[in-house]
Amino acid sequence: MTDCLFCRIVRGEIPAQKVAESEDCLAFRDIAPKAPVHVLVIPKAHFASLDAVPTAAVIGAMGMLAQRVAREEGIAGSGYRCVINTGDDGGQTVGHVHMHVLGGRALGWPPG
Ligand code: AMP
């Protein structure tokens, strides 16, 4: 049990626009969307970043929920991007590992 922002969303203490849920993960809309579809997929358990994730199962569960979200949001066919920002140089601002699912428009590469 931690006080982190995303743990509080998991516990329902902070509102979020939930779009999907699995046994181990939750998906909700990013509060400041960078694309027409911008959903965050998080494990319900707290891991500070990708670097702190202990098992492949956690990443697998996040990836499978991201795939489902993309299908349900109608972007699986047009394509989408999954991003896990990690640490300071990676641009991570919330200390609970999360996967951005971005789509609905052509996304530039490389990111800034
Ligand atoms: P990152 O910069 O990779 O750590 O991504 C954190 C993301 O969380 C950003 O895109 C924020 O817009 C998003 N965010 C921050 N607070 C909330 C919130 N309360 N609900 C939904 N998304 C949030």
If you had to describe this structure to a student in words, what would you say it looks like?
By secondary structure, this protein is α+β, with helices and mostly antiparallel strands. The chain is built from 3 helices and 5 strands, in the order αβββαβαβ. The chain has helices spanning 5-10, 56-72, 87-90; strands at residues 18-21, 25-29, 37-43, 80-83, 99-103. The protein has a 5-stranded antiparallel sheet with strand order 1-2-3-5-4, with helices on one face. Strand 1 (18-21) and strand 2 form a beta hairpin.
Class in CATH?
Alpha Beta
Question: Which cofactors or ions or other ligands sit in this model?
Answer: adenosine monophosphate
Helix count, per DSSP?
3
* Lateral arrangement of strands in the main beta sheet: 1-2-3-5-4
Short structural description:
Helices cover 24% and strands 22% of the residues.
